[in-house]
Design a protein that fits this description.
six-stranded mixed beta sheet, alpha/beta, 25% helix, 207 residues, 7 helices
Length: 207
């Protein structure tokens, strides 16, 4: 597992491999810096065969088009958020221009994706965005912007909702064991059980 902070606001991008020297990798949320990311992949002796997008916010998709075109990797994302990638510049802040892309595999949640020797479960976890997905593989949960170390995703954005976000985190708690390692869209990794026990934003789940 290799983590990179990419793009204008340092969004976490993960390069996931079945083994440290595996020849194929899955990239989660490439937010920017296609040349740098390609250089890292080359240095590892691996190639990107699939790109997983947790949600369509611009800071998580900045390098999707470039990386997919250079590597031939298939792009997986929620069907209900595909417009955020296909028409990405409608949703970027002023001064930010990104290359749009049409995803190859459209998801709704509860799929199993067998990629690069790994089996990923998809979980629909709306609240921060309407069709946000989390991806789980081998004790690792890529939570995007739903759950962070000591915090949770913003709900002051279009399509976001606090009650829905809390329900989504409860879904994760019901489905995965507390020792599950959470790899969020921003900030350091954490454990699912740690956040359920201590995260100040999740007090209502402990009531």
């Amino acid at each position: 597992m290799d983590r990179y902070e990419l793009g204008p606001i340092g969004t976490n991008c993960y390069v996931v491999r079945a083994e440290p020297d595996a020849p194929e990798a899955v990239v989660v949320d490439p937010g920017g810096d296609v040349p740098g990311l390609r250089l890292e992949l080359t240095g590892m002796g691996t190639r990107c065969v699939a790109i997983l997008i947790t949600h369509g916010h611009w800071d998580h998709v900045g390098a999707v088009a470039g990386l997919a075109k250079e590597t031939g990797a298939s792009v997986h994302m929620a069907e209900d958020e595909r417009v955020l990638l296909e028409d990405v510049n409608t949703f970027t802040p002023p001064g930010v221009r990104l290359e749009p892309y049409t995803p190859d595999v459209l998801l709704r949640g509860d799929e199993t994706l067998d990629l690069a020797g790994l089996s990923f479960q998809t979980v629909r976890v709306p609240g921060h965005s309407p069709a946000h997905l989390a991806y789980y593989a081998d004790g690792c949960l890529f939570s995007g912007d739903v759950l962070f170390a000591g915090s949770v995703g913003r709900t002051d954005l279009t399509g976001a909702d606090w009650d829905t976000l809390v329900e989504s985190i409860q879904t994760l708690a019901d489905r995965f064991p507390p020792e599950t390692v959470v790899y969020p869209g921003h900030g350091p990794e954490t454990a699912l059980g740690t956040e359920l026990a201590r995260n100040p934003f999740l007090a209502e789940l402990r009531a």
